[in-house]
Design goal:
The chain is an alpha/beta fold and 140 residues long. The protein folds into 2 domains: 61 residues, 2,3-Dihydroxybiphenyl 1,2-Dioxygenase, domain 1 (Roll), CATH 3.10.180; 75 residues, 2,3-Dihydroxybiphenyl 1,2-Dioxygenase, domain 1 (Roll). Helix content is 19%, strand content 32%. Strands 1-4-3-2 form a 4-stranded mixed β-sheet. Strand 7 and strand 8 form a beta hairpin. It is globular. 17% of the residues are buried.
Length: 140
């Protein structure tokens, strides 16, 4: 069975968030986008991020929304096709107002870096060269 994933994230300002993620190259499905929520397309047909204004997000849960200036509620990780792709996405995020909370990490077979969006959500980006990955005991 094929599944889709819809990640729901609280945001403070719809237009600001759409502009930020638009600067990173993402598009939005207009059928599921309005002033309360925007459906960001990460991978057509399978991966979407619902950016929901905090007051609307709150209608889905009785729990309080995490204060991302003090806590981390989730780490999102997206794969990239190359090391250069990781660096380019971080460059775009920083140019659009995001922050880089950590330095790039080079593990040989895996290269990772990330950014914090305008609402404090942390997006990790990773490129993995599986041909250079260490063998597990089952593969040896």
């Amino acid at each position: 069975m094929s599944q889709q994933i819809f990640i729901n994230l609280p945001i403070k300002n719809m237009e600001r968030s759409k502009a930020f993620f638009g600067a990173l190259g993402y598009s939005f499905n207009p059928q599921f986008t309005n002033e309360q929520g925007a459906c960001m397309v990460v991978q057509e047909g399978s991966i979407y991020v619902m950016l929901l204004v905090e007051s609307f997000f709150q209608t889905f849960t009785k729990k309080s929304i995490a204060d991302t200036s003090k806590t981390t509620e989730v780490l999102l990780c997206l794969s990239c096709e190359s090391r250069a792709g990781v660096d380019e996405m971080v460059r775009k995020a920083l140019a659009a107002g995001g922050k880089a909370p950590n330095a790039p990490q080079d593990h040989g077979f895996m290269y990772a870096h990330g950014f914090e969006d305008l609402d404090g959500h942390i997006w990790e980006l990773a490129y993995m060269d599986m041909s250079a990955a260490p063998a597990t005991p089952q593969q040896a």
